[in-house]
Amino acid sequence: MDERLRKPRIDDVARRAGVSTATVSRALATPDQVKPKTREAVEKAVLETGYVLNVAARNLRTNRTHAVLAVVPDVANIFFSLVLRGISDTLHQHGYRLVIADTGNDPERERDHAEFAQAGWVDGLLLLNGRLLPAPTGGRRRLAVPTVSLCERIPGSDIPYVETANREAARAMTERLLQLGHRRIGYVSGPPNNILEHDRFAGYRDALAARGLAPDPALVCPGDYTLATGEAAATAYLSLAELPDAVFASNDAMAMGLIRGFTAAGLSVPEAISIAGFDDIEFAGAYNPALTTVHQARSEIGARATTMLIDLIEGRQLASREVHLPAEIVMRDSTRER
Amino acid sequence: MDERLRKPRIDDVARRAGVSTATVSRALATPDQVKPKTREAVEKAVLETGYVLNVAARNLRTNRTHAVLAVVPDVANIFFSLVLRGISDTLHQHGYRLVIADTGNDPERERDHAEFAQAGWVDGLLLLNGRLLPAPTGGRRRLAVPTVSLCERIPGSDIPYVETANREAARAMTERLLQLGHRRIGYVSGPPNNILEHDRFAGYRDALAARGLAPDPALVCPGDYTLATGEAAATAYLSLAELPDAVFASNDAMAMGLIRGFTAAGLSVPEAISIAGFDDIEFAGAYNPALTTVHQARSEIGARATTMLIDLIEGRQLASREVHLPAEIVMRDSTRER
DNA sequence: TTTCGATTTGTAATCGATTACATTTTTTTC
DNA sequence: GAAAAAAATGTAATCGATTACAAATCGAAA
Hints:
Two copies of one chain form a homodimer. Chain A is of the alpha/beta class. Chain A contains eleven helices and twelve strands. Chain A has helices spanning 10-17, 21-29, 36-49, 55-62, 78-93, 107-121, 166-179, 195-210, 227-238, 252-264, 298-313, and strands at 67-72, 97-102, 124-127, 147-150, 161-164, 185-188, 220-221, 246-249, 274-276, 293-295, 322-325, 328-330. In chain A, β6, α8 and β7 form a beta-alpha-beta unit. The first copy, chain A, is elongated and about 90 Å long. The model of chain A has no long low-confidence stretch (mean pLDDT 93). β2 of chain A pairs antiparallel with β2 of chain B. Chain A binds a DNA duplex through residues 9-11, 19-23, 25-26, 29, 33-35, 38, 53-63.
């Protein structure tokens, strides 16, 4: 191949600078191990040759990639966006890169990524999907890849995690609704078997119990975190003999669904009924009416988990393996005093 | 190191299966070049040893990574979520992986990623930020990395791109508003110097001109794609002697801002004024009222661009280097007949 | 059975960096 | 100015796969 087209290698630079490849490598990676004069010569040669190192060669030799894989069930899910930003920013600060695997909750895709993580494609793993990557086929024991789980802890595993203190947050929100004078407080749940959902519902009951109130099963509607189930829940409530004073939905999309459902039926929110959500996604504040909700510090969850992962990768001890970040109750216009 | 802990290599498998490393490599990569019996022996040995190939070694040898880098100005921007999903799905179908670089519009970060792309960290580049990655320092000519731009073409470059036919779409939406009987149609713009904005505004004027209407400068409000500027625009319109009949915002967030602004002032949408947006982000349909808007086929934009990139990477000719996808006008509840 | 071609397998070079260790150069100390 | 210590540089092995080329094996045809 034509010399001018061939990609320059480290020895092209070395030759041009009149030094050895070892020196070039050091001048680039650990500049202060090299005499200033030599360093300049190397830098000049790099510029002249247009040298760029070969990542694969370095990775092979050092057995490091400086990349981290985030396993996300759905990149298009608005909830993850800010978490990813927190991850991305933190990684960048520490000189790491982000690889994203959108699994679509498909086990086959999860397996594939688990395999690649093992293959040294990344230095660490961030699991946002609330479950372990499946062990690669052929159960032989493997050297573990550093892993942190976030948003949702993984029950029955000892993987370090970062999540919102869901139970406490749900309890706090329910208490706020009680303080506003509401007594018949409905609850729209997320999918069963979901650990987040479990925690949030527990928080809701905690608050009621603290007031000596038993949760009324008729006021608890099943949902699955989609807008549609929120609308359906509104319909269900409307068929009750007596409407609830307020409804707490375990995420924002369902809260919006409730608002749409009630509004469509001619009930205005918050005049006729108060609605609260959970998550504080982007458009909660922009909604009409602006949504009262539980603010999860999503980018901070991402940032904290990433810091922990980097500690793990670089062999430092973790201060704590289980982090519960407090959430903030944000009162907006979808709730009011009774 | 203890034999049982050391990561097994291809020659461990070869020894165990009683074949050469070449055969193992072939059995794994191109199974039908290998006798079924040998293949089975290799597969057995792989399972027994727990072998996983070393990605860096393969990448070094083959000079391929089967990974693609998507350069995004902001992963947390809801607009990109679905585009990323389209990218991710398509890549997966073709056996590629996704690396995401969130640049935060920071040129330094962009430079860094450009460098890494050159370094063979990925096989191709997907630019979602509407600009070229800066040429690495030291202007020497480089071998180009296959690149496709999407969502926003890059003016003054010949990089293949995929985008929505913005001008035609904006024109179509404006025409719909005219059909509904509206004549005083306001427009809230995106940031100046933005190529998308330029196209959309042109479409708006096209439609008016086709009816012999001149755009009234008083009805054109500056915005920057944020909710806040939408609200500000509502305030500005309210101070006019005569309100517009309808307002077309060049994205959904601003349209929502308009609705909030007008609603807060006691004007109801669409009774008092019709509002239309652009993009059809997730919550446009969930908004209250549900937003009339221009639906961009975001995941398809991602998918098409990705297909083109893979063609480029694998050395196939591109059928067309400039793809304009049609958009769909979605009439919902924020507009009505005059 | 022999021969020829096709199929399967093996040998060993190669990708391009990093780094242990050895060697040389420079600096410090007395 | 010599010896010792420290700093800078060089030599060459190494990371773990792929693959060109050579060699061996197999099957079919004669």
